[in-house]
Structures are given as C-alpha cells and as structure tokens.
Write a structure and sequence with these properties.
The chain is of the alpha/beta class and about 550 residues long. Among the domains are: about 170 residues, no CATH class; about 90 residues. It is built from 22 helices and seven strands. The strands form two sheets. The chain has a five-stranded mixed β-sheet with strand order 4-3-5-7-6, covered by helices on one side. A two-stranded antiparallel sheet has the order 1-2. Helix 22 links the parallel strand 3 and strand 4.
Length: about 550
C-alpha cells in the first residue's frame, strides 16, 4: 500500500509540474498532422482494409474473440474465416472506435493516429528524463514530423497495426527504464502489462522492444534479483500464455503453422532487403516520399556524428543515455537488414531517431556544433528547393510545411529561454494563443496528403463498387467474388459490409437466385444464368463488373 501511495503522489507531482504549453503544443501538432482528413482517401487493400474488415466483423457479427476476414479474396477461392495471422488487440481497439464513430475509414484509422500522438508524449517524457525539457519538446515534434510515419506504407494515418505497436512498445521500454531505476511495485506491473499489450498487437514483432531494452538490464543487472521485477515479468508472461493457450485449444496446429511458421519463422529465414543500397533505403525511410517538406535526413546524420563525438570526448555526463538512444536505432535497423521485407518494420526506430535529432538541435541552439548545424540547414534548403523545382511547384511545399514553420517559430523562441537562464522576456498569453490558433487553422487549410498510392484508381474503384453493392445486400448476405480478378478485393469487402466468398467462375452458376457477384468483365458471358451488370470499373490493375445473378 505504501508503494501505491508514493506512486500516486509522484504522479500528482509530475502532473502539476508539467508545462501545459508543451503538452498543448505536442497534442496540437499531432492532431493537425494525424487527425486531419483521415476519410479523404479509401482504405488500401493491403493491409489496412484487411484489418478494418476484421474490426468491422466484430461490430456486425460479434466475432471479437477471434476476428474474421476473407484474406486474399479475389485472388483465391476463399471465404471469411478466422484471421490467425495477427493477435486481436488492434482489431478490438478499431472495433471500439467503430462502435463510437460508426463504420468508416475515420473510425478504422483513428486508433493508429491517436497512438502516434500518445507516442509523441512518451518521446517528450523520455527526452525530459534522459536529457532535459527542451530536448523532450523538440524530439516529440520531430517524431510527429517524421514523414514516413505519416506518409509511408502502413503509416500512422492508416488503419494498420504499427501505430499501436510503437505506442505499447515504447511504453514498455519506458516502464522498463523506470523499473530498473526506481524500486517499487508499480512500474514492474505496468511494464508487464505494456509488454503483454505489445505482444497482443503484433505478436513476435514485440520482441524488438525487448531487444531495445536490453542495455537497461546490462547496466542495471541488480534488477534481475528484484522480486518486484519478476512479479511484473510473470504478470505479462501469464497474460500472454493465456492467449496462446486459448488459440491452441481452438485451432491447434493450424494456428501454429500460420502464426508461428508463416508469420515469423519463414520471415526470419528469408534474406530480407539488405544489400549495398541499404544506406540509400535508410535515407528514403527517414525522409519518406518527396511529396512534402522532408529534410530530416539532412539533420539525422550530423546528429549521429555529434552524439558519437560527445560519447568519445566525454563532454557530457549523459554518455549512457546517448548510447541508449543510438542503441535504440541500431536495435531496430540491424534486424531489418537481416529479415525485413517492408519499410514499416523500421517504424519503432523513429523514437530513437527523434531523440537523437532533438538532442542535436538543442546542442546547436545552445552554441555547440554550429558548423554541423549550418551543414544540416544548408542541406535541407537544397533538398527543399531541388525537389520543389523538379517535382512540384514551390507553393505546394510552402503550404505543406507552413504548420512546421509555425511550430519552429514557437520552439526557437522557447529554446532561447531554456538555454539562457538570463533570458527573461516572456511570450504574452494572447501571442501564445494566436500562434497555436494559426497552427491549427494553417494545418486545417493545408492538411497532409494521402500516403502515396492510397488514392490510386484500384482502391477508389473498389470503394465505389463496394458502396454500390451495399445498396443491394445486407451484412448477413454473402457477396461472391471470382478468383483471379487481378487484385485482392479487401477494400471492396469493407465498403460493401458483407461476407465475402471467393469462388471459381463456374461456381457462380449454382449460387442462390438474386446473388451479387464481382467478376472479370470479360468473364460475364461464362455465367450461363441470366445476369444484370449493376456497375463496371476498369483501371490498370482490374477490369471487373458487379453483377446480379437471376
């Protein structure tokens, strides 16, 4: 009881000492980037439409213990079945969002977007605990502004599971750090629960955060003899084993084959995407797609150099903290070299990247590494101007980076105050309020674009086809989808809100009268029964028709 009392007292003290403008800045920035126009582009068939359909089935059909989806429908003769590839937590959260906001793209993507904002607050707290307050604020904004995090494949502006994975995983690392540095009963319990939440979000991928936390146990090995620590570990382990036992009892060898071998062992055994061009891929992953203002790579490499110099010259007393944030980056990227086949696998690295860049910017502002700072700024300007001239008119970049310019203005003013105790000029409250208002209005006027490829014709056409199909069927009906229609039809299935069943074209001759089907337009004549084409769509990847079979 004494531990819980002291813990609650520490929480109250921490809440009262938080700078409200810091928190408001982080939340406002995150909301402007991640919550704006989440419904302005259709769900992508891989992977978010699959996950959104699993969540939708929980709402419509009550399949919450084991979410269902028609995986690879349109490519194979399959039907809606238990989705064994991933643990269910992300789909439970998405289904809760759909219960509140209705079944929509916004509701499907909201948990991932909110997770990014909450992770930024953890980055802020990490920055304060490891370094100082200014590093915390800068790092949190850098994290939110990491282009690949809001524009990449399976980014935090999609209905993917990676946003929640980063949130729970970062929370696990933070609680582990608090556990090894503070002997009480509370932090180990939160550590165990957050570790379980990470596992329940993406299974074996949670292991990367255990790898990230490894140095904490090396530097603080006494915690391994602490009873409270093992209570927390046992709690997380028991909760995880209960889920494993549940899946084994219900699906046995099939679950082991799909979840363990197909999703983990086969990927570990693969060669990954490493090779001579891996440095180039790394820069691409940091900077994202050249459809926005994305100069982080120009800051990242000078930042790493500065951190290495500080570690080598013993300039700072924070050597262990600096080693830890560098380890965070390497602990994610090294496995990616070996087994990674998607760029989204490096998303957990962006927490460490943000802390390194935040530390470097702070050091430049207080007067150290000015030359490296000038190099970073010059490189960023060249990067911006070259892409603006070669890819798009300069004005599109100015509007997209307008919100970041406002954020930068606020931070530059605050950095001066933090770095110089004699600097006593304060920003009047009306000015602060006006800056935040401009940030929100400016961001609303120039919202982040859709991630590359998400507004492409195949997904737009599948959405239109699905909405039309939804007018003819109910959620209790089944829509038949011909196998090999050119592209998986997960986007269509979500918007039609029906059960889906993939079948060979010959099977459509024996479906119930009045059934709705999606077939290749060129194969409609192969259906011997009377049909009526309701709508047809054609693009580079698909030429399909929605038909009613008499």
């Amino acid at each position: 009881m004494e531990d819980w009392t002291s813990y609650l007292a520490a929480v109250r003290e921490r809440l009262f000492t938080l700078e409200p403008w810091d928190i408001l800045l982080v939340i406002s920035t995150g909301a402007a980037i991640y919550l704006t126009n989440l419904s302005s582009y259709p769900l992508r068939t891989w992977d978010e439409a699959i996950y959104a359909d699993a969540a939708q089935n929980i709402v419509l059909r009550g399949t919450w213990p084991i979410p269902h989806t028609a995986l690879r429908v349109g490519l194979l003769p399959v039907e809606s079945r238990p989705f064994l590839e991933k643990p269910p937590l992300a789909f439970w959260v998405q289904s809760g969002s759909m219960q509140i906001f209705g079944i929509s793209e916004f509701a499907a993507r909201l948990p991932s977007a909110v997770a990014a904002i909450l992770t930024a607050l953890l980055v802020y707290e990490f920055g304060i605990r490891l370094f100082n307050r200014s590093v915390g604020v800068i790092s949190s904004v850098v994290f939110l502004g990491t282009p690949y995090l809001y524009m990449g494949f399976n980014s935090a502006r999609t209905a993917a599971t990676d946003g929640l994975l980063i949130l729970f995983g970062t929370l696990f690392v933070y609680c582990t750090w608090r556990t090894v540095n503070q002997n009480n009963r509370v932090w180990p319990l939160i550590m165990g629960v957050s570790g379980w939440l990470t596992v329940m979000t993406k299974g074996f991928a949670a292991g990367i955060f255990l790898f990230i936390a490894f140095p904490l146990f090396v530097w603080n090995s006494d915690v391994l003899r602490n009873r409270n620590f093992w209570v927390g570990v046992s709690l997380g382990g028991v909760l995880t084993l209960l889920w494993i036992a549940f899946m084994w009892v219900n699906f046995g060898d099939e679950w082991v084959r799909v979840f363990v071998f197909d999703q983990f062992v086969s990927k570990v055994a693969s060669d990954g995407d490493g090779g001579p061009l891996i440095v180039v891929e790394y820069v691409v992953a940091i900077t994202g797609d050249p459809e926005g203002f994305q100069p982080l790579a120009s800051v990242f490499f000078p930042a790493v150099f500065a951190v290495l110099m500080d570690i080598r010259t013993k300039y700072t007393e924070k050597r262990r903290e600096l080693l830890f944030v560098l380890w965070w980056i390497g602990a994610v990227y090294a496995p990616y070299l070996l087994i990674g086949d998607l760029d989204s696998y490096i998303y957990p690295m962006f927490v460490g990247t943000a802390l390194v860049i935040g530390y470097f910017i702070h050091e430049v502002v207080v007067g150290r590494y000015r030359i490296l700072g000038l190099v970073a700024i010059a490189t960023a300007i060249v990067y911006l101007v070259s892409y603006s001239v070669l890819v798009e008119p300069i004005w599109s970049y100015i509007t997209r980076s307008g919100a970041f310019a406002l954020i930068g203005s606020v931070l530059l003013w605050r950095w001066k105050r933090w770095s110089d105790p004699e600097f006593s000029i304060d920003i009047p409250l009306p000015v602060k309020s006006g800056i935040l208002l401009l940030l929100l209005v400016g961001a609303a006027g120039a919202p982040p674009p859709a991630p590359p490829g998400y507004n492409s014709d195949p997904f737009v056409d599948q959405k239109r086809l699905g909405l039309v199909a939804g007018e003819y069927v109910t959620s209790a009906d089944t829509v038949y989808i011909q196998e090999n229609v050119g592209l998986a039809m997960h986007t269509f299935v979500f918007y039609s809100r029906t059960r889906a069943k993939g079948v060979p074209i010959e099977r459509l001759n024996s479906v119930p009268p009045g059934a709705i089907a999606v077939v290749n337009t060129t194969a409609v004549d192969r259906i011997t029964r009377r049909t009526r084409v309701i709508r047809a769509v054609s693009n580079r990847q698909q030429n399909v028709s929605l038909v009613r079979i008499r």
